[in-house]
């Protein structure tokens, strides 16, 4: 589902690469944690998968496609098969929970009748029944992240990327979000999550890829934070 083949990313003006000759292969349906200290390259890895940035060398494959060959106007198509969730939720503040999720469907041209059917289904899946008409500022952090997960998942992407999704949440709320990501993973969606949260990694016991200064220093099945 995801392959990085000898990928190096060096940002302009920086001496050291943010990713340095990285080889990683993630199979369909896997759940993988990317861990490592601040600046080790986790966000850069996610940005390359979304084609928000391009590798300096090497090959990045997502869902069977070499992202380097995807034309700019086809990037939205890539992002349709790759949902993402971030630490800061990134909801539209002037839209309700339901409207935030609906918007993800509107931009890809889904009909109103599909939207009317699918939005309540996915909001209920993430446990937000009854809160569909709340604005982000009327929701807790955990609830806002549930909306973000619903929005990322509503198109049933092949891959869900999560960059520090529990970074702004307390431990109990973080565990709830992890249960949700685990449930999504069990539907067959590949989940890749960048995190600093050692408790979460230790509780989940999934594959752990550890980065240090842009290099993979550990790749372990059912790993712990270490
Ligand atoms: N746009 C940019 N321009 C220049 N250097 C960058 C840019 N983005 C990241 N870097 C550098 O690349 C390296 C890796 O950064 P990255 O954000 O991928 O790390 P990270 O592991 O996600 O860190 P954190 O956990 O703090 O988010 C760092 O040295 C950082 O300073």
Automatic annotation (TrEMBL):
Gene3D superfamilies: P-loop containing nucleotide triphosphate hydrolases
Pfam short name (any one): ABC_tran
Database matches in PANTHER family: CELL DIVISION ATP-BINDING PROTEIN FTSE, IMPORT ATP-BINDING PROTEIN
Name of the gene: ftsE
Any single biological process term in GO: cell division
Quaternary data: Homodimer. Forms a membrane-associated complex with FtsX.
Domain of life: Bacteria
The name this protein goes by in its record: Cell division ATP-binding protein FtsE
ABC transporter domain ranges (all copies): 2-225
Family of the protein in this entry: Belongs to the ABC transporter superfamily.
Family matches, as SMART domains: AAA (SM00382)
Cell compartments where the protein resides: Cell membrane
This protein's UniProt keywords: ATP-binding, Cell cycle, Cell division, Cell membrane, Membrane, Nucleotide-binding
GO CC, any one term: plasma membrane
Membrane-topology descriptor: Peripheral membrane protein
GO molecular function, one term: ATP binding
């Amino acid at each position: 589902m995801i392959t990085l083949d000898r990928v190096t990313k060096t940002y302009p003006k920086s001496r050291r690469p943010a990713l340095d000759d990285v080889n990683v292969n993630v199979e369909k349906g896997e759940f993988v944690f990317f861990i490592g200290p601040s600046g080790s390259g986790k966000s850069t890895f996610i940005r390359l998968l979304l084609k928000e940035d391009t590798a300096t060398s090497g090959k990045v494959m997502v869902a069977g496609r070499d992202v380097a060959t995807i034309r700019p106007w086809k990037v939205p198509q890539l992002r349709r098969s790759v949902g993402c969730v971030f630490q800061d939720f990134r909801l539209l503040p002037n839209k309700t929970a339901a409207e935030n999720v609906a918007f993800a469907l509107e931009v890809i041209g889904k009909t109103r009748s599909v939207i009317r059917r699918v939005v309540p289904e996915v909001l209920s899946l993430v446990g937000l029944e009854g809160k569909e008409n709340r604005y982000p500022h009327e929701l807790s952090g955990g609830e806002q992240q549930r909306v973000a997960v619903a929005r990322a998942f509503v198109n049933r992407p092949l891959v869900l990327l999560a960059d520090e999704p529990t970074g702004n949440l307390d431990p109990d709320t973080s565990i709830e979000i992890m249960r949700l990501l685990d449930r999504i993973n069990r539907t067959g969606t590949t989940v890749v999550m960048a995190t600093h949260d050692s408790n979460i990694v230790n509780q989940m016991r999934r594959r752990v890829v550890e980065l240090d200064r842009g290099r993979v220093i550990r790749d372990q099945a059912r790993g712990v934070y270490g």
